[in-house]
Amino acid sequence: MLSTTERTRLNRGKAKARTDRGELYDLLDEGLVCHLGVVVDGSPRVLPTGYGRIGDTLYLHGSTGARSLLAADEVCVTVTLLDGIVMARSGFHHSMNHRSAMVFGTPRVVTDEQERWEGLRAITEQLAPGQWDVVRPPSAKEMAATRVLALSLAEASVKVRTGPPSDEESDHATPIWAGVQPVRMVFDPPVTDPALVHDLPAPDHVLARVTRDEA
Amino acid sequence: MLSTTERTRLNRGKAKARTDRGELYDLLDEGLVCHLGVVVDGSPRVLPTGYGRIGDTLYLHGSTGARSLLAADEVCVTVTLLDGIVMARSGFHHSMNHRSAMVFGTPRVVTDEQERWEGLRAITEQLAPGQWDVVRPPSAKEMAATRVLALSLAEASVKVRTGPPSDEESDHATPIWAGVQPVRMVFDPPVTDPALVHDLPAPDHVLARVTRDEA
């Protein structure tokens, strides 16, 4: 269950709040980019970045020199998956079918080397599943240059909009087309690094990710 | 030209800052969702929302009752387009090819009715090009329920990462595959609202948006 706090309560709009923690996990596991919100000198800053999840913890990473992750201040991490463009009979009811998660909290700077390793593994695997075990693991120097943050999923909300437009009843008789244009992200066949020295094929786990449309 | 301020200067990372204002426009015009960062009671909040652009102004809208847009406080609007998963020979150099724009400023609450109308038109057309002129326009009641904000693009930065992995020279001889898996968003054929009273086909401007892959 996702508990409700003042800022995760959703009062407005057609998008429905979900309270199933499994939906939060599924959404986070499907996403690739999160938008990390921080306050710097009183001003908001929103940065796109990768992330990974292990259980009820979200891992983020950055350079030890990155200003936005210098202090373990309060953050808001938002992951949004766009599913469709909702085209209504009225301009007012145009909308997006989407799933979004917001996570609030103050991340912990991870110091335990084992957890730092597992966090970085989760972040890499979120981006490129199957890669961690086949690539060169981080060196001591690379580990030292990387800050790993852990954010609890204790305070999180999930918002989902699905389905057809929510037009006014009075507009239904109007002869205007209405519907949803589905939107999705696809993975295309991999492009090998032109600098590759060896004549190696892309690994199966990469090829398996290529989107194949049912024709 | 995009002018550089302290917070739009990019000091780190392989992603390159761009200074061409045309690149900012192109990126914003291609995106569908922005992530709006605000500070509420000292805490960051990041909300996915639609937007539209007219010249050097970004328009946002919300319900007049939405707490996050109550005051015209400072915001950061980030638009991120993901182009590919960068798979390196080392875990450390895994990355994302992406284009992202960050816009900083204090939005103006638009009060002029003509500008409010044009702003809403831009937001709707960004989401669903061609729809504004064929759907029922906003009623006086709907206009009254909608807050339109205008954010100047004066303080903005664009960051772009393209190309193959940036592996260490010392890793190049390693027999590990490396490359990029392209990622893109596709529009599928529209799904008509089951509640449509008239037997109307989806309009041409909607069908024209459907992604057609070269087979």
Query: How many distinct folded domains of chain A?
Result: 1
Shape of chain A: globular
Q: Would you identify the CATH H-level superfamily of chain A?
A: Electron Transport, Fmn-binding Protein, Chain A
Low-pLDDT segments, ≥5 res of chain A: 8-13
Quaternary: homodimer
The CATH architecture of chain A comes to: Roll
CATH class of chain A: Mainly Beta
Separation of the first and last Cα atoms of chain A: 39 Å
* Class inferred from helices and paired strands of chain A: alpha+beta
| H/E element sequence of chain A | EHEEEEEEEHHEEEEH
Rg calc of chain A: 21 Å
Strand tally of chain A is 12
Q: What can you see in these coordinates?
A:
Chain A has helices spanning about 20-30, 115-125, 140-145, 205, and strands at about 15-20, 35-40, 45-50, 50-55, 55-65, 75-85, 95-105, 110, 145-150, 155-160, 180-185, 190. The first copy, chain A, has a single domain (about 15-170, about 180-205), classed as Electron Transport, Fmn-binding Protein, Chain A (Pnp Oxidase, Chain A), CATH 2.30.110.10. Chain A contains 4 helices and 12 strands. Mean pLDDT of chain A is about 90; it is low at about 10-15. In chain A, a hairpin with a 2-residue loop joins strand 4 (about 50-55) and strand 5. Helix content of chain A is about 15%, strand content about 35%. In chain A, the strands form 2 sheets. In chain A, strands 1, 2, 3, 6, 7, 10 and 11 form a 7-stranded antiparallel beta sheet that branches. The first copy, chain A, has a 4-stranded antiparallel beta sheet with strand order 4-5-9-8. By secondary structure, chain A is α+β, with helices and mostly antiparallel strands. The interface between A and B is large, with 98 and 98 residues.
